[in-house]
Amino acid sequence: MPSFVILYVKDPRASAAFYEKLLGTPPAEQSPTFVMFALSPGVLLGLWIRDEVTPRVSAAPGASELAITVGSNADVQAACARWRAEGAQISLEPTTLDFGYCFAMRDPDGHLVRVFCPPREEKRLP
Fold it and tell me: What are the angstrom distances between the C-alpha of 16 and each of 34, 46, 55, 81, 126?
């Protein structure tokens, strides 16, 4: 089972500042070339300086995304407003897609960060 997501970044410390605000928690580990956040038990987010990744990487930022689940559509709206006020580049205004209500923004390296609330399952009457 995958347990570690790594984003390749230009400046791990600058990216760490962004993700510390986003996640509301400080890094669990930090060095000049790598920063790690504990997202939940058994799930980690790493920010690795892209010029020192071995073997070399060629994927451009934005080729993947980090998705964050919240509990309600109001939470999506609140997160979007908060991040807009922080100066984040909003790539997708709050909207409903097949998988739920969401908005998307870009981190300092252009990686997509999506905040969403999955649709609630409707209870069917017998």
Answer: 9, 9, 23, 21, 51
